[in-house]
Amino acid sequence: MPTVKEIFETMEYGPAPESSDFVDAWLEKHGRKFGHFINGRFVEGNSTFEVINPANKAVIASVSEGTSAEIDQAVQAAGAAFEHWRTLSGHQRARYLYAIARQVQKHSRLFAVLETIDNGKPIRETRDIDIPLVARHFYHHAGWAQLASEVFEDYGPLGVCGQIIPWNFPLLMLAWKVAPALAAGNTVVLKPAEFTPLSALLFAEITQQIGLPAGVFNLVTGDGRTGEALVEHPGVAKIAFTGSTEVGRIIRQKTAGSGKKLSLELGGKSPFVVFEDADLDSVVEGVVDAIWFNQGQVCCAGSRLLIQESIAETMYAKLRNRMENLRVGNPLDKAIDIGAIVAPVQLQKIESLVQQGIKEGASCWQPGWAVPTEGLFYPPTLFTNVEPAGTLAQVEIFGPVLVAMTFRTPAEAVELANNTPYGLAASIWTENVNLALDIAPKIKAGVVWVNCTNVFDAASGFGGYRESGFGREGGAEGMYEYLRPNWEQDLPEAEEPGFVPRAEPGINAGLSDEASQSLNDGAKSESAGIDRTPKLYIGGKQARPDSGYSYPVFDPAGKHRGEAGLGNRKDIRNAVEAAAKAGSWAKSAAHLRAQILFYIAENLQVRAREFTDRLVTDCGCSAESAEREVTVAIERTFYYASWTDKYDGRVHQTPFRNVTLAMPEPWGILGIVCPETNPLLGFLSLVLPAVAMGNAVVAVPSARYPFAATDLYQVFDTSDLPAGVINIVTGNQLELAKVLAQHLEIAALWFFGSKSGSEMVERESAGNLKATWVTHGKVRDWFTPEQAQGEEFLRHATQIKNIWVPYGE
Ligand code: NAI
Predict the structure, then answer these.
(1) In which band, very low, low, confident or very high, does the pLDDT at 506 lie, cut at 50, 70 and 90?
(2) DSSP label of 457
(3) Direct distance between the N- and C-terminal alpha carbons of the chain, in angstroms, rounded to an integer
(4) Catalytic option among 18, 65, 125, 299
(5) For the segment 458-499, what is each residue's pLDDT rounded down to a tens digit?
């Protein structure tokens, strides 16, 4: 028996294990064997696999390996249930969600212990973080169900949602997916991760207890093959996935062209940036939360520690001291900081990446004590002397391994922070709020925590930039992922294939630049009677197409109207380069952008007659309808000029002492392939909201009727639009769309064209996982405001960054 003095000196804790008795009782009740949960009841699967407790490698239970046939049954059940569920009032759905929240709270201890046994994460975390957040998510979304018809007026559910979740936060990821889907009126087929299906099975039981109508929530267990069957099922209207970037990319390709809505929450390599004026003791605790929370198996783990050089050694010393005092062991022990790694394969992955880092010359430090050997444990690890381009700094380790690098200036910190293909989260530590709020918008990440880390709430959207995926979970943004405009389904479909331009050599061939310019200028007016061949518009200048080819443009009666430049891959590259140079547009004041848009409208008005004539001669429409298109185009320009300084962010009501700022940020460079019809109005209806929100655009106008867009060059030139903000490449829309989709510097791509083109765009965009907005051949009416303008466009032109700033002493 140690003396009190000895206890105070060593600060040794006695074991404080949470009892697993009633988890055992629950498992025994099911004979430690589980089937799938389909249409409101458990059904036995064909083959089974074992689930282990990673803390002691003991087998906990066996669960079923879902087949395609079982996925089909579940999708059918969900499809049938959808017909009823969608007709319930928001209030009725809210009651079910509320009942789930209450039931989760009532069974919180059972859930927490079960999750710990299944996943290996400390009971402190499941008890205090995972399960309370699950309940919070269902409460919050009970609210969205209640309010949906008012807040999301004219929007409706999608249908059956296929949801595939990972093993790191099994029940929390379930809640993040199931709650918004049900609140919006969808039904669900969920596939939990193969390592951690048990809390989802318990959740299924809860849905039975609260009387959720059969088929609204279905659960099929299994591994990646089961997930694949769900992704491929034609009865699924949406796939929501959280997991590795690799699988996310496969799912992007597999769902291409299917019309399935997709949200991807993928990997990360999030920076944890510490400035020299930060409160270093708080920083140390922050690091513990950032990288040792859940054994570092967190998509938004602060795995890259970026420290200002002046304090690096002090920080390392403090960190090593803290690491020496962390406790790794039985996750059911309430005094444990770090639990077990989820599975042998994950432990091996961590070990091999650590060895790789050592081989590459980084310095590895681990505490002096050894981890228990009976389970899957790995010690907290700190790497210093890490090369920013090395494996450790670039690859997601998904384990308790922290990789430290230093910087000198804030600009260098931002550069290092963004030196990753990912963009999920970032944490900034400084006592200088001005500095923090200057850095936060500069880091490409969906969530930025100031002087805090790994804080989550249902009211605040969560999701990534770049290869961390697209779409948000939580908040209003999260609800939109499960809704679509009611009128969308009834849109007519365009004929396939679209217009294919035929190449002809020479574009003003043989003429000097001045001569060709004057020819173009003269040809602006039909009365000049001179054939015209407008060039491309890149970086604020007219540019010859790289190919030197043009293509003939005819009116609907087959009369030759002129030649348009046939842009190619090189022209798109040049346009993207020009757009990249226009980066300051995003940072310019919204007031300035608004003024320029108003000015565009004014200059359009001056030339209204000319544009009307152009539409009449090129498109063969009546003078009346051409006039209407021009009038609406001018009004729409006013409309987006008006929105420019009014599409604000929000301050979310998160239940902590902080403000959570939701800021809509532009994507950066946005590719837009415009509709074939209404060549002026369709073009402006897409390009203007993108530009209003601060994006630089590479636009491909209607190939059949390109001149309404090329006539805009002079309007833009005379409206003070900075060079490179709008770039226009005429030519074969499909070919150019493919180049845009494959271009790694384009963050988002809109394709308002054919069905097959939409499929191609979604598939080819998988490279950098760019966010796409495609119409699958459906044709909008550009005169109908509900289809042609509004927040939908502004939402697609931006992505939300949530910045958490705590307050108080
Ligand atoms: P994973 O991406 O393979 O698995 C996630 C989920 O997708 C699981 O339910 C799995 O069964 C399912 N799945 C796998 N292949 C599929 C396919 N082709 N089609 C449909 N569903 C499929 O992740 P895994 O193998 O569990 O972990 C590998 C690495 O991924 C980790 O080391 C970590 O780096 C990263 N990861 C990232 C997560 C995140 O939250 N960002 C979560 C889990 C893993």
Answers:
(1) low
(2) -
(3) 41
(4) 299
(5) 999 999 999 999 999 999 999 999 999 999 999 999 877 678
Structure confidence by residue, pLDDT tens digits, 276-329: 999 999 999 999 999 999 999 999 999 999 999 999 999 999 999 999 999 999
Task: Report the chain's C-alpha Rg in angstroms.
Answer: 29
Low-confidence winner among 7-11, 44-48, 67-71, 393-397 (lowest mean pLDDT): 7-11
Q: What is the DSSP letter of 466?
A: G
Peptide bond into 157 cis (omega under 30): no
The 3-class SS string of 72-138 reads HHHHHHHHHHHHHHCCCCHHHHHHHHHHHHHHHHHCHHHHHHHHHHHHCCCHHHHHHHHHHHHHHHH
Rounded (10°) CA dihedral 73, 74, 75, 80: 90
Distance, CA of 29 to CA of 339 (rounded, Å) = 27
Atom of ligand 1 nearest to the CA of 222: 11
572 Cβ neighbours under 8 A, 6+ residues apart = 698, 729, 736, 739, 740, 743
Residues with CB under 6 A from ligand 1: 164-168, 191, 193-194, 223-224, 227-228, 231, 242-244, 247, 250-251, 266-267, 299, 346, 349, 396, 398
* Strands annotated E in 667-725: 669-673, 696-700
> Does the pLDDT of residue 527 top 80, yes or no?
no
Rounded to 5°, the CA angle 57-62-64 comes to: 135
User: Does 299 qualify as catalytic in the annotation?
Assistant: yes
User: CA 383 to CA 378: how far, in whole Å?
Assistant: 15
Residue in the block written with tokens 């790994």:
454
Q: Is the pLDDT of residue 1 over 80?
A: no
Quick check: 526 pLDDT over 70? Answer: no
3-class DSSP state of 749: strand
364: CB partners within 8 A, 6+ apart: 354, 357, 358, 381, 382, 383
Identify the band that residue 528 occupies on the pLDDT scale cut at 50, 70 and 90: very low
- Closest residue (by CA) to atom 43 of ligand 1? 243
Summarize pLDDT for 182-209 with one digit per residue, the tens: 999 999 999 999 999 999 999 999 999 9
pLDDT at 516 over 80: no
For the entire predicted model, the pTM comes to 0.95
Which 3 state secondary structure label does DSSP give 629? Answer: helix
165-202 CB burial, b ≥16 within 10 A, e <16: bbbbbbbbbbbbbbbbbbbbbbbbbbbbbbbbbbbbbb
Q: How many angstroms from the chain centroid is the CA of residue 720?
A: 33
CA distance 591 to 30: 63
- Ligand 1 atom nearest 164 alpha carbon: 9
Active site residue 265: yes
Q: Ligand 1 pocket check: which of 176, 236, 239, 244 to mutate, most ligand atoms within 8 Å of Cβ?
A: 244
**What single DSSP character describes residue 223?**
-
Whether 525 shows a pLDDT value over 90: the answer reads no
Cα 607 to middle of ligand 1, angstroms: 56
**Which residues are 577's β-sheet partners?**
none
Q: Do the Cβ atoms of 40 and 49 come closer than 8 Å? A: no
